[in-house]
């Protein structure tokens, strides 16, 4: 295990919490061979198992016809145990958006969302059950942190989504996943080792992994500066998305409490360093909240901070949670904010607000189930 980064936030699982069972996706290719050999099987069985899981999306030993029947059940029990079960799927946009509520082995709930567009398919996945960042406008942040997800629990969300696309469960016919965003429940960089492990499994070539492109993966963070710096040393080509939500420290200290530890300038400096190392443009995520952070002068200040940096701003009309005082900006304020950014030459997109009718905001569905 890599040593903790100085200044990095550390979260401890609640006392008595059960660890997820060991799974093939938790292991590197070399570790899989060792695990298979420890079960008394030939090491090449590890490659066969990887082909079934990562290439064919199958954890059903009845389908493993190239493995002797006598070996299948033991290999399945030890290396492909059930990790999570679907509580329910909820769809909208004529089935093009499907949100899944998962129950993990210990009863914890997490969510993922599959979004099909004419030109691409994106999955938004969770990296933690709950979140410890405590952002007041976020349903997940207000629920608190239950625990980190294992590498395999993160990967399995994608494996299931890819199987559903292949098998035509999502309207529009069979399709291939094009983009993955770590923007579901949790702060990905607070579960650093397992998130990076998941990225490796998803992007390693078949049969060692799924064979997806690193360039199709986006990792979001509220700004854990030491972890951003550590990520820059990984040699990855993933995009980094910084959930900024305010350009000034005074407001961001309230909206994103970790800002009391690492200020806006420090977060952006770390992001620019990551951009230099990875060659990827930084995305700035900004939830527009009525009368809180949507003033045109804040748009102007944000534009000044980002001018000439090649960053792209994703403005997110806030998807309000029940009972919350936080709500989406008025259309005229949204337009003025966009104009203030564009005046500085900062490319800006107002994100498509999918999923409002299916508890689309991160954490809403899990909270309603609880």
TrEMBL record:
Further information = Reaction proceeds by a ping-pong mechanism involving intermediate methylation of a conserved cysteine residue.
Classify the source by domain of life: Bacteria
| List of residues binding [4Fe-4S] cluster | 131, 135, 138
- Say which family it is in: Belongs to the radical SAM superfamily. RlmN family.
Residue ranges of every copy of the Radical SAM core domain listed in the record:
117-357
Q: Which InterPro entries match?
A: Aldolase_TIM (IPR013785), Elp3/MiaA/NifB-like_rSAM (IPR006638), Methyltransferase_A (IPR040072), RlmN_N (IPR048641), RNA_MTrfase_RlmN (IPR027492), rRNA_lsu_MTrfase_RlmN/Cfr (IPR004383), rSAM (IPR007197), rSAM_sf (IPR058240)
Where is this chain primarily localised? cytoplasm
Segments for region (Disordered): 1-21
**SUPFAM superfamilies in the cross-refs:** Radical SAM enzymes (SSF102114)
- The record lists S-adenosyl-L-methionine as bound by 186-187, 220, 243-245, 319
Spell out the reaction equation it catalyses.
Answer: adenosine(37) in tRNA + 2 reduced [2Fe-2S]-[ferredoxin] + 2 S-adenosyl-L-methionine = 2-methyladenosine(37) in tRNA + 5'-deoxyadenosine + L-methionine + 2 oxidized [2Fe-2S]-[ferredoxin] + S-adenosyl-L-homocysteine; adenosine(2503) in 23S rRNA + 2 reduced [2Fe-2S]-[ferredoxin] + 2 S-adenosyl-L-methionine = 2-methyladenosine(2503) in 23S rRNA + 5'-deoxyadenosine + L-methionine + 2 oxidized [2Fe-2S]-[ferredoxin] + S-adenosyl-L-homocysteine
How many cofactors are bound and how?
Answer: Binds 1 [4Fe-4S] cluster. The cluster is coordinated with 3 cysteines and an exchangeable S-adenosyl-L-methionine.
Enumerate the active-site residues: 111, 362
- Cofactor(s) of this protein: [4Fe-4S] cluster
Q: Where in the cell is it found?
A: Cytoplasm
Q: What does this protein do?
A: Specifically methylates position 2 of adenine 2503 in 23S rRNA and position 2 of adenine 37 in tRNAs.
Q: What is this protein called?
A: Probable dual-specificity RNA methyltransferase RlmN
Annotated EC: 2.1.1.192
């Amino acid at each position: 295990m890599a040593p903790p980064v100085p200044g990095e936030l550390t979260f401890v699982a609640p006392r008595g919490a059960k660890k997820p069972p060991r799974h093939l996706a938790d292991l590197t290719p070399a570790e899989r061979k060792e695990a298979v050999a420890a079960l008394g099987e030939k090491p090449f069985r590890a490659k066969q198992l990887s082909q079934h899981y990562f290439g064919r999306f199958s954890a059903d030993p009845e389908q493993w016809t190239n493995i002797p029947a006598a070996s299948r059940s033991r290999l399945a029990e030890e290396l492909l145990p059930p990790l999570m079960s679907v509580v329910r799927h909820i769809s909208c946009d004529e089935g093009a958006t499907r949100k899944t509520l998962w129950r993990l082995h210990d009863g914890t709930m997490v969510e993922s969302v599959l979004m099909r567009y004419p030109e691409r398919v994106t999955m938004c996945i969770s990296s933690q059950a709950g979140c410890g960042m405590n952002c007041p406008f976020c349903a997940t942040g207000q629920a608190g942190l239950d625990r980190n997800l294992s590498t395999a629990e993160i990967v399995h969300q994608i494996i299931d989504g890819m199987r559903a696309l292949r098998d035509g469960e999502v309207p529009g016919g069979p399709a291939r996943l094009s983009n993955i965003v770590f923007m579901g429940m949790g702060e990905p960089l607070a579960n650093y080792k397992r998130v990076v492990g998941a990225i490796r499994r998803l992007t390693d070539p078949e049969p060692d992994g799924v064979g997806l492109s690193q360039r199709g993966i986006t990792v979001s963070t509220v700004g854990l500066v030491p972890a951003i710096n550590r990520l820059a040393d990984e040699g990855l080509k993933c995009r980094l998305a910084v959930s900024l939500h305010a350009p000034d420290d005074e407001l961001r200290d309230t909206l994103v409490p970790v800002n009391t530890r690492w200020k806006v300038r420090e977060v952006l400096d770390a992001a620019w360093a990551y951009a230099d190392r990875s060659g990827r443009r930084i995305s700035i995520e900004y939830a527009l909240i009525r009368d809180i952070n949507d003033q045109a002068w804040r748009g102007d200040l944000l534009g000044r901070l980002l001018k000439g940096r090649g960053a792209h701003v994703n403005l997110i009309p806030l998807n309000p949670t029940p009972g919350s005082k936080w709500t989406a900006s008025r259309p005229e304020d949204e337009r003025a904010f966009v104009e203030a950014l564009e005046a500085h030459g900062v490319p800006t997109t107002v994100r498509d607000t999918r999923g409002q009718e299916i508890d689309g905001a991160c954490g809403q569905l899990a909270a309603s189930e609880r």
